[in-house]
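hiii so um. not sure if this is the right channel but i have a protein structure encoded as tokens and i wanna go backwards to a sequence. like what aa goes where. can anyone help
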């Protein structure tokens, strides 16, 4: 099985899954909070329209997890993502 590294931990994924799909499949439904109110956020629209699912991918921040295809060895950082 393929794996990505999320916050320092290996996370399996199936070929063709997005980062958001891999996170949800692993039971993670929220992985960041809003700036105002610190409300939990994860995948909402699932098609790249909103910005609720932001993560950093391989050091590049503010990527929409629902649009990024997972690939072996990819490093994903969740939480408050900045550029």
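sure thing!! here u go:
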């Amino acid at each position: 099985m393929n794996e990505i590294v999320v916050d320092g931990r290996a996370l399996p994924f199936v070929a063709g899954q997005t980062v958001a799909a891999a996170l949800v499949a692993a039971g993670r439904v929220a992985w960041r909070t809003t700036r105002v109110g610190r409300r939990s956020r994860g995948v909402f629209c699932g098609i790249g329209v909103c910005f609720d699912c932001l993560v950093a991918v391989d050091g590049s921040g503010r990527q929409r997890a629902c649009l990024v295809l997972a690939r072996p060895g990819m490093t994903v950082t969740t939480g408050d993502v900045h550029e």
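oh and The chain has one domain: 2-77.
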